Amino acid sequence: MRIASVANVKAKFSGYLKASQSGPIIVTKNGKPVAVLLAMHDEDEIERMLLAYSPKFQRILHLAE
Asked: What pTM did the predictor assign?
């Protein structure tokens, strides 16, 4: 896992995309974490990520319990 500032990620975005293949990149602003850059390896992984962060889907799961 690497940590990089927004300014560094902005200046060298393609390099950070490549680096994210080996692990997440924590992006910081004013020294505080604000985002994570993750590599996606297939479409299923993208779908799982979108569902995990979907408030509507989370409500459905909660109601199903």
From this structure: 0.76
